[in-house]
Amino acid sequence: MTRLTVRARAKLNLGLEITGRRSDGYHNLVTIFQAVSIYDELTMVPATGLRLSVSGASLGGADNLAFAAMRRLRERARVGGGAAVHLAKGIPVAAGLGGASSDAAAALLAARQLWGAPVGDATLRDLAAALGSDVPFFLRGGTAFATGRGERIEPLPPLLPVWFVVVVPAVRIHRKTATLYAALTAPDFTAGHRVREQSDRLRAGLPLDPELLVNAFARPLVALRPELSAIGDAMRRVGAPVVALSGAGPSHFTVTGDERDAWRMARELTRLLQSRARVGVCQPVSKPPGVYSA
Ligand code: C5P
User: Fold this and answer.
1) How far apart are CA 77 and CA 116, in angstroms?
2) How far, in Å, CA of 53 to CA of 56, rounded?
3) Does 26 contact ligand 1 (Cβ within 6 A)?
4) Closest residue (by CA) to atom 4 of ligand 1?
C-alpha cells in the first residue's frame, strides 16, 4: 500500500512590516519567511473518505487546515479518492511559527501525489492562498520575500549558516492572528524599507542583519499581554544580540552565528523562564518539502 510522508517545516519571519489596511479586511505586509528545522510529520495512506488523527497536540477534526486543504483539492481536481492522514505535531500550536499553514501545504502536496490529481503548481498555489495567507510559502519553503497579504512569494538564496534560539511563551490569545491585526494602529504601519533592505542583503549573499529584524506586532502584542515583556528581558539578560518576534507572536527568537552560544542561551533561558516558555534551537532549512513513499 502507498504510504506517503512529508515534513511540514515551521517558519520564522525575518522581519515583518505592515504597510496598510486593505478594503477586503486584510493587511498588506512585507516580510521574509524562513523555513526552519522544527517540523510536523504528515503521513498519508489511501482510504475511503477523509480521516485525520493527530498526536502531540489536540487539534483534530474537520476544522483542521490540513483537512480543509484535502477537501478543497478533491473538489478542484474532481478526484474521488479518500485518505487517512496522521499528523505528528512537533511545531508549537498558535505560536507564530506557521504550523497549521505548513500542515495545509504538506497535505496539498501529499494528496496531489496520492490521488494522482491533475492539478498543476499554479492551481496548487491558488488553493494554498485561499486556505491562508502563509500557506503558499510552505509549498516551496526555504527563504522567501513575501508581499501582498503574505501570499506573493519571491524566493531568496539560502541563508548563510546561523542558529536561531526560539522562545515560545505559554500564553493563549483567543483568535490570535485576527486579534493582533485588529490591534494595529497607524504608527504600527511602516513602508517596508527595513525588510526590503534585509532582503537586498540576502539576495547579495550577505549575512542576516539582526538590526533589521523588526516586527509590527511587537507593540500590540505587549500591549495585549504585558507579562510578555519578561520574555524579551530574559533574552537580553542572557546576551541575545537581538529580540525578534515571529509572525503575530507570541514566539520570540534571536540569532547567532555560533552554535555553542545558541545552546548556552537556550539553557539559560530555560532556567530563567521555567514554565513560562518553551525554548529550542533550530537552523534554517533551504530544501523544499519532499513527499516520500515509505
Ligand atoms: O489568511 P489567514 O486566514 O491566515 O488570516 C487570518 C486573519 O488574520 C484574517 O481573517 C485577517 O483578520 C488577518 N490578516 C490580515 N492581513 C493579512 C493576513 C491576515 O488582516 N495579511
Assistant:
1) 10
2) 10
3) yes
4) 132
